[in-house]
Write a structure and sequence with these properties.
The structure holds two protein chains of two kinds.
Chain A (H helix, E strand, L loop, with lengths): L5 H5 L4 E2 L7 E2 L13 H5 L5 E4 L4 E4 L9 H5 L1 H5 L5 E2 L7 E2 L5
Antiparallel strand pairs in A: 1-6, 2-5, 3-4
Chain B lengths: L9 E6 L3 H12 L4 E4 L14 E3 L1 H7 L11 E10 L4 E7 L7 E3 L2 H14 L3 E3 L6 E5 L2 E7 L2 E10 L6 H5 L11 E10 L2 H8 L5 E9 L7 E7 L3 E9 H4 L6 H10 L1 H7 L3 E11 L10 E2 L2 E3 L8 E2 L4 E2 L1 H21 L4 H4 L1 H7 L2 H7 L3 H6 L7 H14 L9 H11 L4 H13 L1
Parallel strand pairs in B: 1-2, 1-10, 2-7, 4-12, 10-17
Antiparallel strand pairs in B: 3-6, 4-5, 8-9, 9-10, 11-14, 11-15, 12-13, 13-14, 16-17, 18-19
Helix pairs in contact in B: 1-3, 1-9, 2-9, 9-11, 14-15
The chains are: A alpha+beta, B alpha/beta.
């Protein structure tokens, strides 16, 4: 069997992108001094976090987020709500929209 | 005594239209009280997610005979426990003669959608597409919610936000969920025809298979896999501790893909179309870390309250969501009838749970701690089991090896330390 990449996995799931602002905010530059071993990168089930070696920043895309809350807990800065970091639920019904659940 | 204010928009407001919130609202409405459910998804069911197995007793309690109309999937009569190494597996495979409707595989979106309809039939009002951003608190009494600029008031609020109870955490009413208390799960949903699923699992008549597995698939970490057969889909998932994953070196998605490729798993899902991929946190804390369950003007139910038990061979969350929703709804209705929503009055909720979910969680309070500190469970023992089976079943023309020798050889590989033996005894006691 062929391995699937995350984009292929997420393309099976429905998302309502909405017009709002990102529900999760991080500071890509501040992530250089991550105190949490970049746990987000490995443990996000939607692989929304990816360390950009060239730009030396954390690349994050909130579209495709499955809203599980794992990063909210494994990232110390999201957990404590450090400056430049926040975690909220998307508003107005946007975000992941499960058809099967 | 905290007297109910007559000027409120509703008598009760429920945050979250999932299984817990809807069950609570259903009971409140049945008691003739006005109740509003505020749901952040575009519909009830849009944000719900489950591994996929429901023990039905609490659904029956909620709905009576009407539970039979619920959109459940297959009735589980085949239970498989799988010990997996990198490429091999040993299964304990049991088929029960009379499952008696006790447990079904489910897809939670259609189930929650259906339950929302039942709620509306008994008078529950539901506002979907609205994210609660805060509470209305007056003199220490929770008496409403905020969604954006709007304020909705009620005599009491039932919190059923789910595993990430942002609103109640931020209000400082419950302790914050910690990474040590959760595991993260990812699930694939694969589509196959009903006939093909029956063929692959040797089932018929909408009977289903539930498989839980542990071993090399989680790379030595606490966790495991699950596989449930639905009518014409298969749920396949991986669950691992969030805390231990932090220092791990393997990506969760890659590990899930490895699971999907495992020879003992791939044969069930090969060629099937992926129709959904999702993720959810699983509460793995103990009864000692569940939050405060009630206060002045509020109750908390379901995942938000941490009502979940994972014993390795059974995982229960949805049944407790419904059961705690029932208890919260009944407690709320009685408090409203008495005109008293004080914490003292609402403490009846905890009493109602004392004989069910809280007792169950107390019974297994040490299980998670034991499992997560016994890495042999996920490495050594599955390997030993598979090796033993291989030795027993391998016939290659060499000298016949008596079973006693095979067993003795396997026995030599068991860690001999006294601490190992004591730890196993401790583990069996904890489960």
């Amino acid at each position: 069997m062929r391995r699937m990449k995350i984009d292929e996995l997420l393309s099976a799931t429905s998302f309502d992108v909405g017009e709002g602002s990102p529900h999760i905010v991080i500071d890509p530059q501040a992530c250089r001094t991550c105190p949490s071993e970049r746990a987000c990168e490995l443990s996000c089930p939607a692989q929304r976090y990816k360390w950009d070696e060239v730009k030396d920043v954390m690349a994050f895309d909130y579209v495709g987020c499955l809203e599980c809350g794992n990063c909210r807990l494994v990232c110390d800065r999201l957990f404590t709500g450090a400056e430049g970091y926040s975690w909220n639920y998307p508003e107005n019904g946007s975000g992941v929209t499960y058809r099967f659940g | 005594m905290t007297v109910v204010d007559e000027e409120n928009d509703f008598e009760a407001i429920v945050i979250g239209g999932g299984l817990a919130g809807l069950s609570a609202a259903y009971r409140v409405a049945q008691a003739g009280r006005s109740v509003l459910v505020v749901e952040r998804g575009s519909t009830c069911g849009a944000k719900t997610f489950t591994g996929g197995r429901l023990y039905t007793y609490s659904l029956r309690e909620l709905l009576g005979e009407q539970w039979r109309q619920a959109p459940l999937q297959r009735e589980v009569d085949r239970e498989i426990i799988s010990l997996l190494t990198e490429r091999e597996a040993m299964n304990i495979d049991t088929t029960f003669a009379e499952p008696a409707g006790r447990s079904f595989t489910v897809l939670s979106t259609p189930l929650v959608e259906w339950l929302a309809q039942r709620c509306e039939e008994v008078g529950v009002e539901i506002v979907p597409g609205a994210t609660v951003t805060g509470l209305v608190i007056r003199d220490g009494l929770v008496c409403g919610v905020r969604t954006g600029d709007e304020e909705l008031t009620s005599a009491l609020v039932i919190d059923a936000e789910g595993i990430n109870p942002l609103v109640f955490e931020r209000a400082g009413l419950v302790r914050r969920l910690a990474r040590e208390d959760v595991a993260v799960g990812a699930k694939y949903l694969f589509k196959l025809s009903e006939e093909e699923i029956d063929r692959r699992f040797t089932t018929s008549d909408r009977h289903g298979t539930a498989m839980l597995g542990m071993g090399a698939i989680t790379r030595g970490l606490f966790g495991g896999m699950f596989l449930y057969t639905n009518i014409d889909t298969i749920s396949l998932g991986l669950v691992v501790d969030s805390a231990s994953w932090r220092k791990h070196g393997h990506s969760l998605v890659e590990t899930a893909e490895d699971l999907r490729q495992h020879p003992a798993i791939a044969r069930y899902v090969e060629g099937a179309e992926l129709v959904e991929y999702g993720a959810h946190l699983v509460y793995e804390g103990s009864v000692d870390t569940v939050p405060q369950l009630f206060g002045d003007g509020w109750l908390i139910a379901g995942d938000a309250a941490g009502f979940c038990i994972n014993r390795g061979f059974t995982i229960r969350g949805m049944d407790y969501a419904i059961a705690s929703g029932i208890a919260a709804g009944e407690t709320a209705a009685a408090a409203l009838a008495a005109g008293d929503v004080s914490a003292i009055r609402l403490s009846a909720y905890k009493d109602a749970l004392a004989g069910s979910v809280l007792a169950d969680m107390a019974e297994v309070r040490n299980a998670h701690g034991w499992m997560s500190h016994t890495p042999d469970l996920f490495t050594t023992y599955p390997g030993l089991a598979v090796d033993l089976m291989r030795d027993m079943f391998t016939v290659d023309g060499g000298p016949l090896v008596p079973v006693r020798s095979t067993l003795a050889a396997a026995g030599k590989k068991v860690p001999k330390k006294l601490s190992t033996a004591l730890n196993l005894v401790k583990g069996v006691r904890s489960l």
